[in-house]
Amino acid sequence: MNTPTPHIGAKAGEIAPVVLMPGDPLRAKWIAEHYLENPVCYTEVRGMLGFTGTYKGKPVSVQGSGMGCPSMGIYSHELYAFYGVETIIRVGSAGALQDFLDIGDLVIAQGACTDSHFPEQFGLPGAFAPIGDFELMRRGADAAGKKGLRYAVGNVLSSDCFYVDDPENLPKWRKMGVLAVEMECAALYANAARLGKKALGILTISDCPFKGTATTAEQRQNGMKDMIETALELV
Hints:
Layout: E1 18-21, H1 25-35, E2 37-43, E3 50-55, E4 58-63, H2 69-82, E5 87-96, E6 106-114, H3 134-146, E7 151-158, H4 169-175, E8 180-182, H5 185-195, E9 198-208, E10 213-214, H6 217-222, H7 225-232
Parallel strand pairs: 1-4, 1-5, 5-9, 6-7, 7-8
Antiparallel strand pairs: 2-3, 3-4, 5-8, 6-9, 9-10
Helix pairs in contact: 2-5
């Protein structure tokens, strides 16, 4: 496919080999304005903003993914397959499923369980286990540790539903030791595996449904500096 693609307005060469991907395009804009040197907006298609600049002299892009596996599937596929992107680091929010996690803690997604049908497109004769890149994961954990941050490494749940009808849904995943629930990592990891690329999810706990605590939308958009700065250490 030629560039621009149906969903990204960039020309070839305008996107860096490493991309940070928040779900919220306004968070992408905030990251670009606060962390990148000389950021240039390369796409505004469908309001899904993307920027390229440099961080400590290295080229890096930041691009919104939208919400859910289908949206992440589209944007990560186009970045990997048509723009030569080698590494995507998802930086997003998640809901804690375990009591030892609190608001502001980081979760590094070693694996991504899912209730999505996204992996079925690959026609595998069994269940695919989406996992993050080990080297990125190791470096991310090291960076968080050196910063003295509270973090955990393990499974997350990439759910297709934000409003879950079954009240026993999350307790079942919690019972299996899943750390947190989000909506995109499984699709990102599956695309990375299929296309021979690298991916990792570094998430900030934004709410604790079993404790009844949560951040505001503005805090989720403009905060989460620990997560972003940890992710930028991997560029």
